[in-house]
Each structure stands twice: as structure tokens, then as C-alpha cells.
Amino acid sequence: ALAVLIPLSAWISISLTVPVTQLSKLVANINRNQTHNEFPDISRGSREVARVRSTFYRLYKLIRVANTAFYSGELDRAYKTMHDALLLFTKLENKKAIGIASNNMGNLMLTMYRAMKQTSAPTLFDISRKKVIHKGSSYFKAAIEMGEEALQKINDEEGFSINYLIFMQQVSNRYFNRALFLLTVHKDRFEPDDAYSQGLVDLSTCKDMDREVVDNGDNEGFKGDKDVYFELLMGRIKGLLHMMKLGYDDPWGIEELF
């Protein structure tokens, strides 16, 4: 009986831990906004695991469709899909994913605003310019607040770890994105001077966080992924060039990025 019990216990353990581990990896990928790979099958697992997998499969599809639509210029489709993804993340109470989705929605609001300015359209997808600015500000506020909360939690649990530095870079990106948004839309905001000042503060915060990642990364042995770093540089340069095109002086010094 004992010989039968041990393999049975092992099978039960595997049937529980394997699908849970696989689901954990899916959550981690979503939290990092990495959904370019095919959605994996979940081996074994209970009916509840299958139900959770079904939910995450829908999330994967939503995010991939939204990203494809965004980069293809289908802003209407991207907006609806990203909004649905944000609602699902909120329902799941996944704060990291909510933060990422909110940041993406903020970036989309900036793109919509620029499209409206270029075409002189008063609305886009039945959303007024004023509403786009309000929504964008709210999305970025939520993204940064949740990012700071998550960053503090990692610091409390792990201290100045590699995981902390990786997530700090994500939070830095959100400050940079909000800076671009505010410095682009501030003239159409109710309090333009406040938006302008906050945009400059966000740029300074982003720069300080980037330096902290680099300086402390050396101490922690964290160099980062070269491809990710290259994409980061290109994103920063593209954003700064956009600001310079709007008439701003280079507030950062592009040469300092290298």
C-alpha cells in the first residue's frame, strides 16, 4: 500500500505544482508585457486551473491584438482592445499588470492627441481632445502610483536586488512617458503651467532613476539585457527628438545617453 501511496502522492503533487508554475510564468510574462510568444499549453491541472488558463489566454490575445493594432496605426481597435485588457487586469486585481496596461493606455492617449492636432479634428472615436488629455493624465497617474507601490514592496522584501533594479527601470519609463505626454499637451490643459512643471519634474525623476539603475547595477552585478537597453535608448532618443521638434531645448542632452 505504501508503494502505491508514494507514487500517487507524487502524481498529485506534480499535477498541482506543474500547472501552477506554468501559470506563474504566464503572469510574469504579462507583468513584463511580454506576449510575443505563442500561448503555451498548460499540462495537467484541475478544472480551476483550466478556467484560469482560459482567462489568461484571453488576456494574451487582447494584448497581442492591441499591440498589433497600435503599431499598425489602427488606433480605434487598439483603444478598445487595451481598454478591455485593463478591465480584465482590474478584475483579476493584478496590480503590476494594471500598471503596465495603464501606461500603455497613457501612451495611446498621447498618440490620439497628436493625431487630433495634426488633423485639427475636434474628436477621435467620439472622444474629445479635452477628454483625451484627462484620460491620459489619469492613466499615467495610476501607472506611476502602482509602479512606485510595487517598487517599494520589492525593496522591503528584497532590498537593492537585481529584481528591484529591473522594475525601477520600468517605473522610470513611466515617468518619461508621462513627461512626454504633459509637455506635449500642457497648452491645452486647464492649468498649463502646472502640467509643464510636472513634465520637467518627471524628466528629472526619470534621469535620476536611470542613473541609479546604472550605478547600483554595477554593485549588484546587473548589466541588463543588451537588446532591452538598445530599445530603451531608442525610445528615449525618439521621445527627446519629439520634444525638440515641439520647440523644447534638449532638456537631457542626448549625448549623455551613450
From TrEMBL:
This is KIF-binding protein. It comes from Cyclophora tenuis. Gene3D superfamilies: Tetratricopeptide repeat domain. Keywords: Signal. It comes from the Eukaryota. The keyword Signal applies. Residues 1-17 form the signal peptide.
